[in-house]
Amino acid sequence: MLGICTQKCFLTILLVFFTLIFTLRASAMIHIAAAENIYGEVAQELGGPHVQVISIINSPTQDPHLFTVSPSIAKAIILANIVIYNGADYDPWMNSMLAIENKEPRIIINVAELIHVKPGANPHIWYSPSTMPIFATTLVNKLIELDPHHQQYYQNQLNHFMQSYQVILDTVRKLKIRYQNTPVIATEPVFGYMANSIGLIMHSEGYQISTMNDIPPTITQIREFEDALQQHSVRLLIFNTQVINPLSERMKNLAIMEKIPILGVSEMIPPQMTYIQWIKNELNDLEMQLEKND
């Protein structure tokens, strides 16, 4: 009798043990480290309670070009199941982080590679309307790969995201009908992909690339930029709210003096806002500024 009881007890304990293991695996959170909150916010939307996301650069007041890695950030990247970064030389510090040996296998998503943007091109790819749907689909496939138990949840979240994202595509289409071929100018190419999608004609791109790469614009580039404002060859000045330098401030003040509307855009999502809300707000602001010249 004792032997039968012991066997039954052992089988019961074994059953409880495997049930516990299965439950823990099913409820285990996937750790995601996103270099920028642009991707971290979308990752949180798609993963919901099944993911834990850390966004490394996460403030619209933070200059991403001056970012340095801390030990806590390095640890978060090393321990992550999924690492997401922009690529295209926007976050070069990630290269050294990803070179650190990791005992556990991890999934690495380079968003620029997903959309075939190479190093040296404009890295502000989150302003391209086609980027986020591709990224979101890729991420959900990876989440399902790591956590097939919640496949239906991830798929539902992706469907909801795509439906919500339609407002961005519709707004871009509407703005293109109304403002295609409108001449504009910018201090940096932050908004470049979105401007192209709407069909805006961008002036002084050489000046913008120099500023983006921390290279002083040439005298010719500066003169061309000032002429565009003073001669009213452009209807809007777009500037980066996260990067402040004397020359950009000078151009912004010149635009104000010439009564040319200005539009500030950022490189990171403001607090308490989703990616879709942020982009929609910026498109609304763009429309409002362009309307001033109608």
Order of helices and strands: HEHEHEHEHHHEHEHHEHEH
Q: Give the strand order, joined by hyphens, for the main sheet.
A: 2-1-3-4
What is CATH's topology name of the largest domain? Rossmann fold
CATH class of the largest domain: Alpha Beta
Report on the structure:
The relative contact order is 0.11. Helix 2 (37-47) packs across helix 6 (131-146), helix 6 runs antiparallel to helix 7 and helix 7 packs parallel to helix 12. The longest helix has 29 residues, at 151-179. The protein has 294 residues and is an alpha/beta fold. The protein has 2 domains: 31-168, 3-Layer(aba) Sandwich (Rossmann fold); 176-291, Rossmann fold (3-Layer(aba) Sandwich), CATH 3.40.50.1980. The protein is globular and about 60 Å long. Residues 1-5 and 8-27 have low confidence and may be disordered. Helix content is 53%, strand content 13%. A 4-stranded parallel β-sheet has the order 2-1-3-4, sandwiched between helices.
Concise summary:
By secondary structure, this protein is an alpha/beta fold. The chain folds into two domains: 31-168, Nitrogenase molybdenum iron protein domain (Rossmann fold), CATH 3.40.50.1980; 176-291, 3-Layer(aba) Sandwich (Rossmann fold), CATH 3.40.50.1980. The chain has helices at residues 2-27, 37-47, 71-79, 93-98, 111-114, 131-146, 151-179, 192-198, 205-212, 219-230, 246-257, 275-291; strands spanning 30-36, 51-57, 82-85, 107-110, 183-186, 201-203, 237-240, 262-265.
